[in-house]
Amino acid sequence: MNERAASRMRVVGMIRKESLQILRDPSSIAIAFVMPVVLLLLFGYGVSLDARHVPLGVVVEQPDTNTASLIGAFQRSEYFDLKSFDSIHAAQQAFDLREVFGIIWLRNDFSEQLLSRSNAPIGIIVNGVNANQARIAEGYIQGVWQVWLGHYARSRGIELTLPVALEPRIWFNAAVSSRDFLVPGLIALIMTLIGALLTSMVVAREWERGTMEALMVTPIRIGELMIGKLAPYFVLGMGGMLLSVATAVWLFEVPLRGSFWLLSAASALFMLVALGMGLVISVVAKNQFVAGQIAIIVTFLPAFILSGFIFQISSMPEAIQFITHIVPARYYVAILQTLFLAGDIWPIVLSNCAVLAAMLFVLLAVVRRKLHKRLDA
Questions:
Q1: What residue ranges of the chain are covered by domains with CATH 3.40.1710.10?
Q2: DSSP letters along 170-229, please?
Q3: Which of 25, 44, 102, 331 has its CA 20 to 30 A from that of 351?
Q4: Cα three-residue angle 149-152-158, rounded to 5 degrees
Q5: Is the pTM of this model over 0.70?
Q6: Sign of the dihedral through C-alpha 87, 88, 90, 94
Q7: What's the maximum distance between 2 C-alpha atoms anywhere in the chain?
Q8: pLDDT tens digits for 99-123?
């Protein structure tokens, strides 16, 4: 038997060994296929950064046709749920008890002060505890007010002069739906968990069970050992990716405007990076519990917080922005959101893939060096 055939047999044997280990451990199957569905359902249905059905208190001191028309404009908006109060005092009490998120106050001189530049006929109070929702709600309120004011002026043949005439045009996510960028970004978290968490315990398990010594005396090479251990988990990760993409497109109706094959290729590259991170942890830690904890802290939490999945990187302090450059999920999230919402923007995809490829090279070099030292020890 020549050396190439022997090498192939050793790799196949190691892959078979790891595959049997996965099949005997239901938790690996659950992490690869059950966890993605659970996370997608939780984030797809339970997490929303959109401000919709915001409870607003309304105080109208002098009802007339103008106030009724303006309140009607707010009632027709999907962003607000209105609750009427007889006085501003009663509305403020409900505001303090958090029964309403904000207050719209139309004073008794509302109709007289319309189109006046000296006094504002409408008062707005917004709860600023949640700063993000407060800014969004304030923008929606101002939008309804400006649209209604424009209709009011045109109905009376008056030209409404504004300092700036806004004509918004939103690209890539015209509905401004947080689900359309949360769900694609979630795929990065899922693949990070599958790749890093599962493989972080691969070598640690061998040390813990005392089977590493048996591997040391076999003729298997370091490269063959790495391929044999990574291949089954690579298949698991890609299966989880396919399940996640299918759920995103068919269940949540997130548009996939880019090439599916390009998405698959980029996902395969990121999966290898995640496997590399998990294997580095596995080589360093000889205890499965310790390896699992390190994997969560070093891979999952940075992917969740520092990848741009939820929090905008440009809004972070400069020191934190610098740290995000060593988080692989940052580059994969950029690829996912581009391919899903914008399409095949090659400069973005290729530049981020290049960084992932460089990270993969470094990780595999570290694994080979550390694993070689351990086998010689």
A1: 54-155
A2: --S-TT--THHHHHHHHHHHHHHIIIIIHHTTHHHHHHHHT-HHHHHTSS--HHHHHHHH
A3: 44
A4: 100
A5: yes
A6: positive
A7: 98
A8: 999 999 988 888 777 766 555 578 8
